[in-house]
Amino acid sequence: MIPAKERLVLPLDVPDLDGAAALVSRLHGEVGVFKVGLELFTAAGPAAVEVVHDVGAQCFLDLKLHDIPATMAGAVASAAELGVKYLTLHALAGRRALAAAREAADGGPTRLLAVTVLTSLDDEELGELGMAGTDDVVRRLARVSVDEGIDGLVCSARECEDLRRTLGADPLLVVPGIRPAGVDARDQRRTATPAAAIERGADLLVVGRPIREAADPVAAARAVVADIAAAAGGS
Ligand code: C5P
Fold this sequence. Notes:
The protein is an alpha/beta fold and 235 residues long. It has helices at 17-27, 38-44, 46-54, 69-82, 95-105, 123-128, 134-147, 157-167, 194-199, 209-212, 217-231, and strands at 8-11, 33-36, 58-65, 86-90, 111-115, 152-154, 172-175, 204-206.
């Protein structure tokens, strides 16, 4: 069982290293995992990962890799070299690319997480791309990812129960779009409270603005960790 603090992922959705360092230094007492995404990594590179590791926290490198097998394998090897705990890739890269990524990660510290269908895409936009039925596409991509030994999936709270049923207990399910009760959903559409997401089978929760923009971010993070612990049975 993952300790509650290590189930909370705070996205460092800031454009530069100073902003990221300020967030990490303020919140590492409460938050076990910090997410470095495309904006920050493009601006600051591996230094952003170091800022996280310097305080003893885990790094979730959200690069959503999508390329040919050899390039995926090389990128995974580089991420493993940096010591990141989690790395995201697109399931749409296909079976051989997923297998190459998994082989490159084998024996290293990095767990691979597949993105299925971006939650910003709706049925109409997916249809235009030749893929009918979002739920079915999500299920297929999830199946292929798990078959190829990918460790987990990024999904919405709405998809958690279905994926747990079809894939079993093993894959890590990582859920963004979390909103503690009473917090504004902002641009997120399919939100869930921390407790509801855990009850539906989520392992890690990605919570950004409800913590960053709270009057007291430390207290807000502590409250989310307490909700996770209570919903998970006190872990
Ligand atoms: O601020 P908020 O809690 O909405 O942040 C959610 C984080 O999760 C952001 O970094 C966003 O890019 C990411 N994310 C998401 N929905 C997905 C995948 C990632 O909100 N489907």
